[in-house]
């Protein structure tokens, strides 16, 4: 399918949503979409796509007027439909960033970042569609993340603590919707307990799948054997013999960056096409991981 954008205002400002619904329906630390013109259409035609028949719909109970659409085969979140009248009745409305005028030299930054987001702009009409940023064939020059919203849902800052800027633009961190109070770097919710729990729960939004992740056990966590992932040694540039991990390194275990804290599991952000198209990776960048191996 194809979608249309207003070409006279590229790149289009968009936000990184950190709300519970977006995180637990996408499986990502944050999720970003951008509003389109009209409705999704089939490639090469002007015919509208019967989205309700082609994709799987899901309506988060706490997000009034918001319907998310997923691929029935690979589960990628592709489209979001917003009913404006219903959406305005909830506490977390989908208000877009203002349509900022760009400077002629270099595009960004806009003429005033200090005044960005002071007042959300309501889109005209009673309904509209948004497309997932990671589902676009090309995002460069088309969309521009400019802020994080609903950071308070994360309790500890979440992805807003990691993704600080995109294309040299500092991302504003809003506690709620655009225009709400901003949260500083290093923010922690007063509801967050100081002591670290021994187990973390993870679940999909409807909680049909709910599991618990425990801390690495010194014995059990070292039992598996696995080749190196692409995160550590890129497949395109790594010899097969090395990728097989013949030394049986337990690469998934990493010491904490803070002295005295327990061992943790290795994590990373994948930016490959499979991740973008299948699971909707939300940000086109890779977070570097510290490693002492000189061959990395």
Oligomer: single chain
How do the strands of the widest beta sheet line up side by side? 5-6-7-10-3-2-11-14
Strand content: 15-25%
The main pleated sheet reads as: 8 strands, mixed
Roughly how much helix do the residues carry, as a percent range? under 10%
Structural class: mainly beta
Low-confidence stretches: 99-124, 276-296
Radius of gyration, taken over Cα atoms and rounded to an integer in Å: 21 Å
**SSE run:** EEHEEHEEEHEEEEEEEEEHEEH
Mean pLDDT: 79
Please, how many domains? Answer: 2
Silhouette: globular
Q: Treating each run of at least 4 consecutive H or I residues as one helix, how many helices?
A: 5
Number of strands: 18
The first-to-last residue Cα distance is 39 Å
List the helices and strands and how they pair.
Elements: E1 2-4, E2 12-17, H1 20-26, E3 31-35, E4 37-41, H2 51-54, E5 56-58, E6 66-70, E7 77-83, H3 84-87, E8 102-103, E9 107-110, E10 127-132, E11 143-149, E12 165-166, E13 169-170, E14 172-173, E15 199-203, E16 210-214, H4 240-243, E17 253-254, E18 264-265, H5 273-279
Parallel strand pairs: 2-11, 11-14
Antiparallel strand pairs: 1-4, 2-3, 3-10, 5-6, 6-7, 7-10, 8-9, 12-13, 15-16, 17-18
InterPro entries: Mss4-like_sf
Protein name: DUF636 domain-containing protein
Organism: Coprinopsis cinerea (strain Okayama-7 / 130 / ATCC MYA-4618 / FGSC 9003)
